[in-house]
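Researcher: Here's a chain I'd like modeled. Treat it as a single chain, no partners, no ligands.
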Amino acid sequence: MTDSVLHLRGITRDFQLGAQTVHVLKGIDLDIERGAYVALMGPSGSGKSTLMNILGCLDTPTAGTYVLAGRDVSRMAEAELAAVRNQEIGFVFQTFNLIPRQTALDNVALPLVYAGIGKEERLDRAADVLRSVGLGDRMDHRPNQLSGGQRQRVAIARALVNKPSLILADEPTGNLDSATSEEIMRLFDDIHQAGNTLVVVTHEEEIAQRAKRIIRLRDGIVAN
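Model: Modeled as a single isolated chain. Structure tokens:
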């Protein structure tokens, strides 16, 4: 586990539905190395979304161990998890999740506010990352002034700005046309080439094939 960014052993997740216990994850063992580019796939009901929420520290397992960048996050309280999310994980969502009234620059700088970085450094770092994703000329634009592909680039820049241990992308091309999807996936290729660890959750085989490794879930276990 020495160079693993993600180290999971025996991860289970149960949910109570009335008197019934639903076993969604049934003992996941998984290691993802630093600098890996992984696609996480699985049919509806496979546990893919539940596993993604655990990987992203949005949820905690019922049992098992999850070590993220050397820190055991399996039993952390919500306040600790929130700090880990901000420091260690960059999220890219299908729906972009940008703040409508803020400029691209302010949206990208937001994680640095929570990290306690001073305003001048925040804006410098956010501007650098926006330039790196090809939006140097769109920093002062608000989300409604940007195309879908540009909005997703802002979201990717926001995910990168804190230099996280893990970039976690959930169906990142789900709201984009095929040409724009190709642009975004080429950007992910570049992000991986720069040494970032990337996990893309997708149901599209074509998107998954861009990754260097595909992990398939079925019925709450790793199928491959």
